[in-house]
Amino acid sequence: MILWQKFNEFDATRDFRKWAFGVARYEVLAYLRDRVRDRYVFDDALVHRLADDAAAADQRHEAQREALDQCLQKLPVAQRKMVLTAYTKGTRMDELAAERGQTAMSLYKKLHRIRQALLECVRRTIAREELT
Amino acid sequence: MKLYWHEQIQRYVAGESTQEETIALQQALKDDAELRALYLDYLNLDVALGAAAEVATMTGSEITRMAIYPGASARSILHYWRWIAAAAACAALVVLTIFPRHHDSSRARHDFDATISSTQNAIARLSVEPASSLPGWMSPTASMLQPPEITE
Q1: pTM of the full predicted structure?
Q2: Does B114 reach chain A within 8 Å, measured CB to CB?
Q3: What gap in Å lies between CA B25 and CA A21, rounded to an integer?
Q4: In-domain check, residue B136
Q5: Residue B138 falls within a domain, yes or no?
Q6: Contact B69/A69 with Cβ under 8 angstroms?
Q7: Which residue has the higher pLDDT, B90 or A80?
Q8: ipTM associated with this complex
Q9: Overall average pLDDT of the B134-144 stretch
Q10: Overall domain count for chain B
Q11: Which of A41, A79, A85 to mutate to test the interface with B (most CBs of B within 10 A)?
């Protein structure tokens, strides 16, 4: 919505992508600046560096999202269902763990391993496609 | 990349890190570009899995290729929407960077979830909405995105 509201400020001669990323970054930073007071988080310098890196890595991340499809299909069905259920809005990890007869900690560890496997698969898939 | 940092990054994103772990991760991220890339890859994976779960919920089925990644015709029509969704994903990365998940039910958590949810919804909508069968000029917003070519 903010992008639409600010759309008339966009100079058509400029890069739309850079403009959109810039707006998103500063709106989020401004929104959260007053909210994050109860926990230790990364400092502004690192946040800006990460945001710069994220903008520069946009194409890589898009390729990763595409490769994720293949990697999800390679997961055993039970693991695929588990990870998608865990990411479904409203899912409570303690309830999901109880349904599966596990502790929440055990479930978190399994999810960590699945995410790591997915990320490795995604990176391998992209590397393989770059070679061909 | 050491397995230790895989674990630490996931702990931070999940809001499980202690203050000492967060400080150590912050310093390592400042010093190591490869580690920053890994961190962003995990955030991207997190956002993409959320979108995949949303699509699976909406379609009532497991994820499909089309659902994750639209076809070429839809992509060309949704060109600018893609940039907006990409910006939303960037916003989600910034949110996750600044404000990782944690497990209490504070208002801030609600705001965080709402931001992430709206980003995931945007990505999911982008992925599953079919290209409109109507000509572009019939859309009330088309003129803002793709000015029609006027032929003499």
Answers
A1: 0.63
A2: no
A3: 25
A4: no
A5: no
A6: yes
A7: A80
A8: 0.77
A9: 44
A10: 1
A11: A41
